[in-house]
Design goal:
mainly beta, 3-stranded antiparallel beta sheet, about 15% helix
Length: about 160
């Protein structure tokens, strides 16, 4: 099997995992992540989902385009073996201190209120990495409520549409 074919199959598997568990309908979820003004370079962020047992379920977004830094997004990297084919979207830019990243992804309705969590790993050049900087249960109760991170993230909120 060619590398291109493997990449296409991996992308299809991820899309299916996040949008069609149990053949459920998908809905857009908008995630807004605001960083603290930590006084350093731009941050790389990996936004991904785990199931109720903590098992990796899929990647939603990655901010930062230089793959040599992805290993510093330690929990995401460990779960995916650094496979960027599993990421629905990758921006070429990191997110600057004090800035906001706003992205929309389609998630299966079956993931909401079913024990799944949104994770955000953060890595900043010349600063300490922050794996699973933030974990938020993907529930209707948490929708629209900003959640504080541990180090770099001022808040993350998500809107179910």
């Amino acid at each position: 099997m060619t590398t291109t074919m493997k990449s296409l199959l991996a992308a299809l598997a991820l899309t299916t995992a996040l949008t069609v568990p149990g053949y459920a309908m998908a809905r857009p979820v908008t995630l807004t992540t605001t960083l603290n003004d930590y006084g350093g370079n731009g941050a790389y962020l990996a936004l991904y989902v785990t199931d109720a047992s903590g098992k990796y379920a899929g990647s939603l977004w990655m901010a930062g385009g230089k793959s040599k830094y992805y290993q510093h997004l330690a929990d995401w990297y460990r779960a995916t073996n650094g496979d960027t084919a599993q990421v629905n979207g990758i921006t070429g830019a990191s997110v600057g201190a004090g800035r906001t990243l706003k992205v929309t992804a389609d998630l299966a309705d079956a993931l909401i209120d079913a024990g799944y969590e949104i994770h955000v790993d953060v890595a900043v050049e010349n600063m300490r990495d922050s794996p699973s900087e933030l974990r938020v249960p993907l529930s209707t109760q948490n929708a629209g409520k900003p959640q504080a991170g541990k180090q770099y993230i001022q808040s993350l909120s998500f809107q179910l549409q």
